[in-house]
Amino acid sequence: MNKENIESILHEKRIFFPSSEFSAAAHIPSKDNLHKIHSIANRDFEGFWATQAKTELTWHQDFTTVLDRSNPPFYGWFIDGTLNVSFNCIDRHLEAHGEKIAIISERESGEITTLTYRQLYQRVCRFANVLKSQGVSIGDRVIIYLPMISEAIIAMQACARIGAIHSVVFGGFSAQSLKDRIENTRAKLLITADGGYRGGKIVPLKATADIALAKGCPTIEQVIVLKCTNQSITIEQGRDIWWHEAEANAHDKCTPTWVNAEHPLFILYTSGSTGKPKGIQHSSAGYLLGTITTMKWVFDIRQEDIFWCTADVGWITGHSYVAYGPLAAGATIVIYEGAPSFPDGGRFWKICQDHKVSIFYTAPTAIRLFMKMGKEIPESYDLSRLRLLGSVGEPINPEAWIWYHQVIGRERCPIVDTWWQTETGVHMIAPVPGAIPTKPGSCTLPLPGICVAIVDEEGNPVTSPHEGGHLVITQPWPSMVRTIWGDKQSYYDIYWRKFEGKYYLAGDSAHLDEDGYFWILGRDDDILNVAGHRLGTMEIESALVAHPQVAEAAIIGRPDGIKGEAILAYITLKDIEPLDEEKQNLLIQELRIWVSHQIGPIARPDEIKFVDNLPKTRSGKIMRRLLRSISRGEIITQDISTLESESTLAQTPQSKS
Ligand code: WT7
């Protein structure tokens, strides 16, 4: 084996087939069926996407050009067509499904409200008219800084309706992060709320926004404030207006602004586990098309489904699979404002039970949290309506996958482990659940019309199974990032330069198994170099998580004079009782032997540290980059504004070396 390539060392052999009932009712019911779709896409790539775009989207003016390759890597899709995204998500359902519930919203307090498609239409129209009356027009940027409630979706859809470009900032971000995003987008208007609830406390959104605005942000002319928690806030006359007052006077019809297919729908800053936030710019038509096709292929969405994606609208998942995809597909969605374990660890399962959720989509970090709390909690709820489960955000450790399958899915629901990125817009590699058997820890196979490869440093495909390389996308795809807002050079440098514009570089390492299934090994930056072997983080972490006492694990490399890098493991335990030193030492020995047995002595951690929490981004990704700096005793100079809890920094022990 070429030592310069990454080696895969974990051999997961379990395989799960969808039930015949599931397959029989699915949009894509068999391997043969899926194979046919793939061969159409392989035979005539552009024709395939043209057909999808014509059948799934409602156009104002049809397109004639499918893919514009005149200025790579700045590709354009359906470039001479015009449409409106909000029209596609709302108006076109009104005739047949106007009274169908579009959104079931549960506040942290337990208060529940619903909106039918017709009510959503009226509220979006009214708010679009409010935006217009404040001078917002096509191409203007609007910042949305709201809790996870219906109005966040209304605000996004209203922007889309008038062709304004939104940039949603997650409600947990600081004044500084908000200010950076306002200044980078040069936004004209800010939409926020007095506050929102999380974990029983008020998140003071308006007060934080005031701090951001006091620090700069000269482009902001108006602030629209939603009353959500009723605590007292400061209103600046002439700048701040109340949402409810403005909406009360607004007309409930608003003709959609027809925009070009390539018109930017939104800018979203990436979660930043790898560095400085970048404004990822997405298109209108291609993006929306990707959300609808994946709603069908991967989530197998049907009229009667109740779809709950737990992501906040501050992340791409909350754009593609809350605010746009499910609505474009005419589905009923559930949204929830608060913390997953408020007031207790049963909240998510109570929501699934009460609202009869049939498709549930969450992140591995949440699944590991629930595992830690114990299976007795979900077991006491009626989860019989669930028929499909999904995972996104990080590689899901096989142990967490099996737990999800048994305890939440009751061994009945397929799991779709979806690999994608803010930049890809929608799922790229994911199971088509009625057609593809799944393997715990693998995101399975690329979707139709998505061309993915694993290549070595020279860009040559890695052929032998269990040898890893760079995950690249070899053809443009409709929902792809169009550029980094205001920074074409960085767009090229980050994603295209490595393979000279030929391939899109995802920044993840992966390998294929004998069946051609994809396994994500971790971020390229996190790869370890141990005695000439290049190892991904995912496999060693998964081996540790498989130990009955381990809740979560993060692996990093620490410089080592002999081995190149030594393996350092940060671990959180399921049991919250602290261990005395003797027990800790015994457990360390046991875990080292455990990893040797599970995957081999090469992967055995040299050092193990127990911590209460691992540092994570606000979207739940473990920040190995930060742990690396800490273990090397470096001063932390990197951007930690997206860190979930800065207190984890303080409690992570400094390395003695
Ligand atoms: C990165 C993208 C995708 C939307 C939410 C996160 C990791 C994501 C998986 C998965 C293994 C995954 C990758 C990717 N990732 N999903 N199913 N298996 N890794 O979006 O913040 O842009 O992060 O998340 O490393 O590159 P994002």
TrEMBL record:
Belongs to the ATP-dependent AMP-binding enzyme family. Residues 91-477 form the AMP-dependent synthetase/ligase domain. It catalyses: acetate + ATP + CoA = acetyl-CoA + AMP + diphosphate. Mg(2+) binds at V545, H547, V550. Its EC number is 6.2.1.1. Catalyzes the conversion of acetate into acetyl-CoA (AcCoA), an essential intermediate at the junction of anabolic and catabolic pathways. AcsA undergoes a two-step reaction. In the first half reaction, AcsA combines acetate with ATP to form acetyl-adenylate (AcAMP) intermediate. In the second half reaction, it can then transfer the acetyl group from AcAMP to the sulfhydryl group of CoA, forming the product AcCoA. This is Acetyl-coenzyme A synthetase.
